[in-house]
Amino acid sequence: MPEATRNSATNRVNINLMGQSYQVPCLPEEQALLLEAVALLNQQLDAARAQGRTISKERTALMVAVNLAADLQRARQEMQARDEQLDRLENRLRRLVDMGRGAE
Fold this sequence. Notes:
By secondary structure, the chain is α+β, with helices and mostly antiparallel strands. It is built from 2 helices and 3 strands. Mean pLDDT is 89; it is low at 1-7. Residues 65-99 form a coiled coil.
């Protein structure tokens, strides 16, 4: 399990990825997010290795990174589409309110 050691304004978080230990500096308020990201990454790495193909650790890590980057890009596109939809809805509501005020 990752652990954190306090060091002035930042924490040094000990993480383990693919059998390797790393110390990663992060702000205290970002530590929970970092640990969640490490858990997700480990889950994806384990899933990739469980597929049974014998590939190097580096190739596995690269494949997982590309998949996670694609997921991030998809989420950004979905968020942008929702923002645009909300903007259109807001504009429509403003027009309807303006029309209602004109009728008073």
